[in-house]
Amino acid sequence: MGETDGIAVVGICKRLDGRWVLDGASLHIGAGERCVLSGASGTGKTTLLRLIAGLEVPESGYIDIDGARVTGGEPFVAPHKRGLGVVLQQPTLWPSMTVAGNLAFVMGRARDRQQRILALAERIGFAELLGRRPQTLSAGQAQRVALGRALAAEPRYLLLDEPTSNLDAEARDQLNAVILDQVAEQGVGLLYISHDEISAAAIAGRRLLLSDRRITEVGTARLGGHGLAGP
Ligand SMILES: Nc1ncnc2c1ncn2[C@@H]1O[C@H](COP(=O)(O)OP(=O)(O)OP(=O)(O)O)[C@@H](O)[C@H]1O
Q1: Whose CA is nearest to atom 10 of ligand 1?
Q2: Which residues form the ABC transporter domain (predicted)?
Q3: Are 102 and 144 in contact (CB under 8 A)?
Q4: DSSP element (H, E) containing 1
């Protein structure tokens, strides 16, 4: 692992509709590291994720991924070239393709594509949906498929925005277990946005808090604890 590995967000300032949402926000996610980002509703968590993903451009500051400047330098690196798997709160699956087609599209011409699609779908729990169109899925089903598609691209980092928000408690716990499994197996760095203390504790990563337009580190989540421990 090199010294520059990881996602470095440095001094990001972002204004939306004339209002500053982020003002000097910084964070670092190491390669293979898990981070949970919390913060009150409307504080800018999704905006931060969208900036890292290349779906927004900041007013100032920069973002490096594994030592390469992707935002705040020239050229701006396009979202699909950042080595990221991204699952937004309202997943955007491609409507003209089946669920299997959505996964196949990000896998290129890999020979073992069909086996990998089936293995991922079985693991995440959407094998029975592979032939369906995205517009026929429930919100919770679409979130699972979006996670499958994000992992199918074998990203270096996974950015998840409230990935269990549409699931009941049992499905939430199962999906968090799958996320942990996959992240460990593929050595993926994880940024997991959540309001939910149970999910945050399950992910058991470094805890970050977004408030007053900046990010602070608040400790490490522990299963069975009270949410936060340490600094
Ligand atoms: N496209 C937009 N134009 C103008 N304002 C926006 C836009 N998107 C978000 N905002 C505002 O920016 C702020 C941050 O929004 P964001 O979605 O990043 O917050 P969040 O912390 O993810 O919220 P939640 O936890 O409710 O999902 C909010 O006040 C929101 O109303």
Answers
A1: 16
A2: 7-231
A3: no
A4: none
Query: Per-residue pLDDT tens for 165-194?
Result: 888 899 899 999 999 998 999 899 999 999
Which atom number of ligand 1 is nearest to the Cα of residue 162? 27
Residue 226 has pLDDT above 50, yes or no: no
Å from CA of 107 to ligand 1 middle: 32
Say if CB 95 and CB 133 are below 8 A apart: yes
**Cross-strand partners of 214:** 211
pTM of the model: 0.90
| Residues 13, 61 contacting (CB under 8 angstroms) | yes
* Domains identified in the chain and CATH numbers: 7-92+155-220 (3.40.50.300)
Q: Is 158 helix (H, G, I), strand (E, B) or coil?
A: strand
Cα 90 → chain centroid = 13
Query: Quick one: average pLDDT of 43-68?
Result: 96
Categorize the per-residue pLDDT at 229 as very low, low, confident or very high, splitting at 50, 70 and 90: very low
Q: Judge if the beta carbon of residue 41 lies within 6 A of ligand 1.
A: yes
Q: Mutate which of 12, 14, 22, 43 to test ligand 1's pocket (most atoms within 8 Å of Cβ)?
A: 43
**ipTM of predicted complex:** 0.95
Strand order in the sheet with 68-71: 19-29, 7-16, 60-65, 68-71
Tokens of 171: 């499905």
